[in-house]
């Protein structure tokens, strides 16, 4: 689908659109959270009952046209029926990692304290790290996830990495003129896109490239 520029939305229009999209999602209760908007930057405030809902709210907000960035200030307060002690959460984490075929669970350790799960270890690919965090954040009783998993990227020349990222960006966003430079495995992305989701998609493309150690996303959202 080709995106085109339209009249910039006002902050009030963005706020109403974000609230409407969240209200449509059955996971959220009416007026469960608040939305503030300043110059296209959405701030989510309030309390939700799970870390999965915290992440979902940010994703919903980011998909709304006109949103340039999302500041997630939601607080997780576990509902009484969902409270689990750290031992049970730790057991659930291990089981979830073992059952996820995309996660090398034997290379990942976890520490649970007051419902906060810290993941450590080393994986070969970005998607393995992402899968581990996504699997854990959906578990009942988890308040937040601190992801300290390290990606052991293969050694590749910056030039080869840079060329691959650029070609991938061109295939996905042929009309946006995005660019990438790579220095010691760190990819820096520049250019403009028309949505917050596109900005994240471009970053994921870079992360998915073999040899990338970190990504600096300097892409701007323009309308």
Concise summary:
With 223 residues, the protein is of the alpha/beta class. It folds into 3 domains: 11-76, Histidine-containing Protein, Chain: A, CATH 3.30.1340.30; 83-151, GMP Synthetase, Chain A, domain 3; 158-221, Histidine-containing Protein, Chain: A (2-Layer Sandwich). The protein has helices spanning 11-24, 51-62, 86-99, 126-137, 158-172, 196-207; strands spanning 33-38, 41-48, 69-72, 75-76, 108-113, 116-123, 144-151, 179-183, 186-190, 192-193, 214-217, 220-221.
Describe this structure in words.
With 223 residues, the protein is of the alpha/beta class. The chain has three domains: 11-76, Histidine-containing Protein, Chain: A (2-Layer Sandwich), CATH 3.30.1340; 83-151, GMP Synthetase, Chain A, domain 3 (2-Layer Sandwich); 158-221, Histidine-containing Protein, Chain: A. It is 35% helix and 27% strand. The chain is built from six helices and twelve strands. It has helices spanning 11-24, 51-62, 86-99, 126-137, 158-172, 196-207; strands at 33-38, 41-48, 69-72, 75-76, 108-113, 116-123, 144-151, 179-183, 186-190, 192-193, 214-217, 220-221. The strands form four sheets. Strands 1, 2, 3 and 4 form a four-stranded mixed β-sheet that branches. A three-stranded mixed β-sheet has the order 5-6-7. It has a three-stranded mixed β-sheet with strand order 8-9-11, covered by helices on one side. Helix 2 (51-62) links the parallel strand 2 (41-48) and strand 3 (69-72). It is flat, with a radius of gyration of 19 Å. The model has no long low-confidence stretch (mean pLDDT 91).
